[in-house]
Amino acid sequence: MRLILLGPPGAGKGSQAQVLSERLGLTHIASGDLLRHAVRAKSPLGLQAEQYMSRGELVPDRLVTQMVLEHLAGPRGAGVVLDGFPRTQAQAVELDHALDRARAPIDLVLYLRTSHEMIVRRLAGRWICRSCDANYHTTNLPPKRAGICDRCGGPLEQREDDRPDTIRQRLRVYETQTAPLLTYYRDRGVLHEVNGDLSVEALFRELGQLFRHKRLLPEAAG
Ligand code: AMP
What we know:
The chain is an alpha/beta fold and about 220 residues long.
């Protein structure tokens, strides 16, 4: 199963992708996580990406697309869930070409439609693990021990680009550059809208039903 999660910052793409990966064995590819790793490692890609990310702008297409396609070529387990990529039409076109070549088209693009109020609440309470990028939220998805990652024991921190002024910029960028992808995928007949205001668990249950209905999962699974 090959999925794309689309939606504004704070729609819950990262948390849902994490659960889909843990419970359905999908490989979670998050362009933001890959970029943050590159920034921490001070790799040539990271050094170029950092200035855009700290301003809440998109990293140039050519850099991000190459990075994600390299990861897509790796092991995929039971399938793949793309989180945060594509974010522009140019990225979507490149992705389509690569998947066509691999004869492995996208099965479903899930649009997490989310209210403004929910976006603000989610981003303000968000914490991520500095070592493994696991997502947490003070009320919705708290870690077992405050400030410590359940998965790897690493330290939790708030993202630098979750500051109010940068959040506003990221939402503007989403509306102008990423939201047009909804039409792109609707025209291809793969877009499916879901309620991004639901909790991670409630949305996961809904997705399980959707996947079975679309025969992307066996009847008994999920
Ligand atoms: P995210 O973790 O998905 O919210 O991404 C954090 C930041 O990484 C974004 O605000 C962008 O600066 C950058 N980024 C992540 N994915 C992409 C992408 N597909 N295209 C361009 N920039 C991206």
